[in-house]
Fold Bifunctional NAD(P)H-hydrate repair enzyme.
Amino acid sequence: MKVFSVNQIRAWDAFTIAHEPIHSIDLMERASVAFVKWFCAHFDDRCPVTIICGMGNNGGDGLAIARILIQKCYAVQVYIVKHTEKGTPDFAQNLQRLHPQTSIQWIEQEAQIPTFTSNSFVIDALLGSGLTRPATGLIAKVIQQVNDSEATAISVDIASGLFADSPNAPSDVIIKPAYTIAFQCPKLAFFQPQCAEYVGEWHLVSIGLSESYEAQTPTPYFYTTAAALSSLTKARKKYSHKGSFGHALLIGGSYGKMGSIVLSAKACLRSGAGLLTVQAPRCGYDILQTSLPEAMVLPDWHWMVNTTVPDIKPYSAIGIGPGLGQDPQTLLMLKGLLSSLTSPIVLDADALNLISKHPDLLHSVPKNAILTPHPKEFQRLLNDQWKDDFEKLAMLRTFAQKLQLIVCLKGAHTAIALPDGSIHFNSTGNPGMATGGSGDVLTGIITGLLAQGMPPADAAIFGVFQHGNAGDRAAQKCTQPALIASDIINEMGW
Ligand SMILES: NC(=O)C1=CN([C@@H]2O[C@H](COP(=O)(O)OP(=O)(O)OC[C@H]3O[C@@H](n4cnc5c(N)ncnc54)[C@H](OP(=O)(O)O)[C@@H]3O)[C@@H](O)[C@H]2O)[C@@H](O)CC1
Ligand SMILES: [K+]
């Protein structure tokens, strides 16, 4: 799914109005009906609902939502903040449509701001994607009052005061909703950690905007959906054999860190690789042979760390990093490996940390190699610091494009940057996966997919998605706090 900027969404709206064709007031009605459908499906206990509206189209949505909820017998109280003299035409029309059904309270001064009770819902329709400046004055006061209350706030399209495509200042006043119900496509802000408390749990509702506009309008940003990946899962042919599914090589483990490479190796096999060899220091030999009899082991001559550049000819993909350590002899091995590569590679953990400490190595990393840093590792690779998450995203894009690499920046919505400049935000996973070994599992999955011949960009996007999917299934079984990396492996399957 494409993620558009506010300007593109506005153009999408206008394109749909012109080409479907549909009147803008009817499109607003569609959006409001979609919001109410979501609301009623989730909250049918008829708690009191307060709707706070601005005077733009977001406020117009709020008024239409009020009318539809009243028709469904919800107890609705409507407030409009008078922040301008004249509302938009669709706001005005919805005001007229609502008038006969309920009394509307105008907020023209601070004393008219209501208190929001704890067992009520506040539907936030003050400001939407038309935000042009931070919320101030009366609107800011209303927002503050909502945030200070214990009511459950639900934002229409986007939290009032939150910029969709650019960072807010830390002092900006923004609604902190429990939920955001966004129309048609997510906003870039939904993927930024710094915006988390201003987004809450977000859901998309379709309002039937033009499919042809979506198809023909370019954007660097995408949100991964299961439907977009369905073509990547293929049934195995009846006469296939283990040689049909590639031979992966994983390099990692060191004294005290053998668990990392064991987890990677298990995940690699579960991703469907036909054969797996693990190169590990001699201290890991018994550990690997015992814990994973399905894998072959290439023991390094060194007892504690990896030092030997393997003969890479037999392997269709290589993964290096989990538990690797940063010994100087391992560094030499990594240098040798990078200069002799012919197959696709995943670089993770200490492989990335070694590269960060020896930045010249970055230029030996082949095109389309997959890097899987968490933000701290990425910052070390960049050797630079970002001011905010939007700048981090821009730096990620530039880095991947300039070096022609695939970078999976791990997080709640892992951002996968491709050499073509696109960024793909993942849609699966949960905070239970923030646990030791989770990243090792991801490295194993992607290496296994590469070994089976999946193109690197697909392997990165699909692997991250399936890793999160398995984590979601695991969390359902054992709860998020109890989840450990092995549970992710046990739930793998597609
Ligand atoms: N596109 C779609 O697909 C659909 C969109 N729909 C809905 O429309 C919403 C966007 O509506 P919108 O463009 O009218 O903007 P909205 O956010 O209501 O603001 C209104 C005006 O407020 C002003 N203003 C800005 N900042 C301000 C501030 N800090 N404090 C005070 N005032 C401020 C600014 O005007 P200005 O003062 O700058 O001239 C702005 O124009 C969208 O989020 C969705 O809910 C659906 O109905 C149908 C399908
Ligand atoms: K809003």
Summary: The pocket of potassium ion (ligand 2) is lined by residues 58, 124-128, 155-160 (CB under 6 Å). The mean pLDDT is 97. The radius of gyration is 26 Å. The CA atoms of residues 102 and 295 lie 70 Å apart.
